[in-house]
Specification:
The protein is an alpha+beta fold. It has helices at 36-48, 121-125, 128-142, 146-167, 174-217, 258-269, 271-277, 304-325, 344-354; strands at 2-11, 14-20, 24-29, 67-75, 80-88, 94-97, 100-102, 113-116, 223-228, 250-251, 288-293, 296-297, 332-336, 359-364, 377-382, 385-390. Bound molecules: adenosine-5'-triphosphate (ATP) and magnesium ion.
Length: 391
């Protein structure tokens, strides 16, 4: 699948933009702050319903305007699809597929994107929440149905937390305890599905991550990953830096039917502390994706360059998995400001790694940083305008 044409209205610093894109590599080039990332962010939005830079849509709407529109004509193997989303400053966003109104969450069924940007360094160095989001986003891209399970879990979690909070400190009434029991069951039922789906995803992603890291950094470097489960006693959200790898807490494959039992046991185990603290202490919302480089946790141990390569490997691995498993074909691979960070040999290796994806979008402030074999179709961006496209 490729994006053949992109139209923007009042998106970020674009009043309007019309951009033709080709199969294979497309390079957006221009000085800092001109709108290169904004363009690829718009395409990423269609695939993920979010921005890789901000958590709400407000910043995506051109300042002073009430709504932004992103429209893309996609070429799938047999047919064209026209996607459109309107982001509204007040009120719900709207979406269309082939000019028929749909729920925005339908859009990612038609377009898959994998975007790598400097912000992704936080995948390796940042909080567990970023890694959970990474896993869940990929899960939903591969299995759209899981979006509903994740949303339901969030809702149950919020309601369970408010019950715990209201029972906190006070003498807990019997009626509250029995209501809590009902929420426990929902939590376990939905949470176990998420835990199993993530574990299964991690085991499919693993070989791709190892291969991608080796591809960038060379042989002899082993990148690995495992899900750390709070129901098995891991407490990633309570610690600054992981201490060591505790195999007891790790899940690298699908845990199967034991998950729900383990979850129930864990809920019983932490009942007292949950009532004391007024929050839900175990479940997929407290798990982490442990990233391991040469046997050590990447977070807190890996160097800047290693962390950068690991984050890039996670994204390349996502692209490889989507390519292998997604019914809509290759994801659009987006590399935002990546080449400037890499030395000559890593640039060449990355160019090889992404060379045969159906479509790759690259941004660069300096065209010379982009390997020549990728720089065929360049599009010059200046002050929120597409000023020139060279074939
Ligand atoms: N909602 C908005 N309304 C108007 N302008 C915006 C909005 N959001 C961002 N901008 C402007 O867009 C510009 C940044 O664009 P972008 O991040 O795409 O730059 P870039 O070309 O990728 O630069 P760099 O090379 O530094 O990464 C900034 O000047 C910023 O002020
Ligand atoms: Mg940029």
């Amino acid at each position: 699948m490729i994006v053949a044409h992109l139209s923007l209205i009042d998106f970020r610093n674009y009043e309007t933009a019309e951009v033709d894109l080709v199969a294979g590599p497309n390079v957006f080039v221009g000085s800092n702050g001109q709108g290169k990332t904004n363009l690829v962010e718009a395409i990423g939005y269609l695939g993920t319903l979010g921005s890789h830079r901000v958590s709400t849509d407000q910043a995506l709407i051109r300042s002073g305007q009430d709504a932004a529109i992103v429209r893309a004509r996609l070429e799938h193997a047999e047919r064209d699809v026209l996607l459109e989303v309107q982001l509204n400053r007040t009120g719900a966003n709207r979406a269309q597929v082939n000019r028929v109104p749909v729920k925005p969450r339908e859009l990612p069924r038609h377009i898959a994107t994998v975007l790598f940007a400097p912000e992704d360094l936080a995948l390796v160095r940042g909080e567990p929440s970023g890694r959970r989001r990474f896993l869940d986003q990929l899960l939903v891209q591969l299995t759209p149905r899981l979006a509903g399970v994740l949303a339901d879990y969030d809702r149950v979690l919020r309601q369970r937390n408010s019950l715990l909070k209201s029972a906190r400190g006070a003498r807990v009434a019997q009626s509250q305890l029995s209501t809590l029991g009902l929420w426990d069951e929902r939590l376990v039922e939905l949470g176990s599905q998420i835990i199993d789906a993530r574990a299964d995803l991690a085991s499919r992603l693993r070989p791709h991550v190892t291969a991608a890291y080796e591809g960038i950094a060379g042989a002899g470097h082993v990148a690995d990953l495992a899900v750390e489960l709070s129901i098995l006693g891991a407490q990633p959200d309570d610690e600054g830096v992981p201490t060591a790898l505790d195999p007891e807490n790790l899940s690298t494959g699908s845990a199967g039917s034991r998950t729900a039992d383990d979850f129930r046991d864990a809920v019983a185990r932490v009942r007292r502390s949950e009532l004391d603290r007024g929050i839900t202490l175990v479940g997929p919302h407290r798990d982490d994706l442990m990233l391991v480089l040469n046997g050590l946790p990447a977070r807190g141990y890996a160097s800047h360059g290693e962390s950068w390569s690991f984050a890039l490997s996670l994204k390349l691995a996502s692209a490889a998995l989507l390519r292998a498993e997604s019914p809509i074909g290759d994801p659009v691979v987006v590399l935002d400001d990546v080449f400037a960070e890499l030395d000559e040999s890593r640039r060449a290796q990355l160019a090889t790694a992404i060379g045969d994806y159906e479509q790759v979008l690259i941004t660069a402030a300096v065209l010379d940083d982009v390997p020549a074999e990728l720089a065929g179709h360049t599009i010059r961006i200046s002050a929120g305008r597409v000023v020139e496209a060279a074939p």
